[in-house]
Amino acid sequence: MRRPVAVAAGAAGVATAAVLPALWFRWRYLVATVDGRSMEPTLRAGDRLLVRRGVRPRTGQIVVVRVPDPPLVYGPPDVPLTAAEEAALLAAPERPEAAPPPGGRLVVKRAVAVPGDPVPRELVPVLRDVPEDVVPPGFLVVLGDNADASWDSRDYGFVRPGQCVGVALRRMDD
């Protein structure tokens, strides 16, 4: 009678040992596929990126962020979110690998200003009237490398805290 219980317990241990690394990888990393021309010539449509979740971006790094759709221009951080902005952020999935809801989308952009950097008013006219001289804690300013084809901070202002999914570590070769 003891023998089958030991075998079943051993099988459960093997299954757990195989599943845990896969779950850890999914929790820690995301594979993002570039769709569109906003990051050309650096990235092209179809390029796949290995993205590390939860990493604090540095200026110049490529990031994946969740932004509202349709574009909502964000004012200065001291101005509360509108009801529509708040609803869009609350509706965003907790697991970024899931398809974004109708109120949000994942985009691949370059972080051009991170907390503590000067607000790039000359690059992002929608931020020219913000009272802050530097990007506030938790906020980002992101731009596409191909300005003519990019929907980015020039359209919606700051990326608010919690919208940064992660930082691209590398392009994945097929």
Describe this structure in words.
- This protein is of the alpha+beta class and 174 residues long.
- It has one domain (29-172): Umud Fragment, subunit A (Ribbon), CATH 2.10.109.
- It is 23% helix and 23% strand.
- It is built from three helices and six strands; from the N terminus they run αβββαββαβ.
- The protein has a six-stranded antiparallel sheet.
- The protein is globular, with a radius of gyration of 20 Å.
- Residues 5-12, 71-77 and 92-103 have low confidence and may be disordered.
How many separate helices?
A: 3
Number of strands: 6
Round the mean pLDDT to the nearest integer and report it. Answer: 77
- Class by helix and strand content? alpha+beta
Q: What CATH first level would be assigned?
A: Mainly Beta
Strand order of the largest sheet: 1-2-6-3-4-5
- What characterizes the major β-sheet? 6 strands, antiparallel
What radius of gyration results from the CA coordinates?
20 Å
Shape: globular
CATH architecture grouping:
Ribbon
Overall structural domain count? 1
Could you give the distance between the termini?
A: 51 Å
Please provide the ordered H/E string of secondary-structure elements: HEEEHEEHE
Helical proportion, percent range: 10-25%
Low-confidence stretches: 5-12, 71-77, 92-103
